[in-house]
Amino acid sequence: MTPVHFSFSSAFTLGLMGLAFHRTHLLSALLCLEGMMLSLYIALSLWCLQLEATMFSAAPMLLLAFSACEASAGLALLVATARTHGTDHLQNLNLLQC
Amino acid sequence: MFYVEILSMLLLVLGLVAVASNPAPYYAALGLVLAAAAGCCVLVGHGGSFLSLVLFMIYLGGMLVVFAYSAALAAEPYPESWFDLSVFSYVVVYILGLMVVGLCFFEGWYDGFWVVDELKEFSLLRGDFGGVALMYSLGGWVLVVCGWVLLLTLFVVLELTRGLARGALRAV
Amino acid sequence: MNPYVLTTLILSLGLGTTLTFASSHWLLAWMGLEINTMAIIPLMAQQHHPRATEATTKYFLTQATAAAMILFASTMNAWTMGDWNINQISHPLATTTVTLALALKIGLAPMHFWLPEVLQGLSLTTGLVLSTWQKLAPFALILQISQNTNPALLTTLGVMSALVGGWGGLNQTQLRKLLAYSSIAHLGWMIIILQFMPALTLLNLTIYITMTSTMFLSLKIMASTKINSLALAWPKTPTLTTLIMLSLLSLGGLPPLTGFMPKWLILQELTKQDLPITATIMAMSALLSLFFYLRLCYTTTLTTFPNTNNTTSPWRLKSTQITLPLTITIILTLMLLPITPAITTMF
Question: Which of B63, B165, C70, C272 has a CA positioned 20 to 30 A from the CA of residue C220?
Answer without folding.
Answer: B165
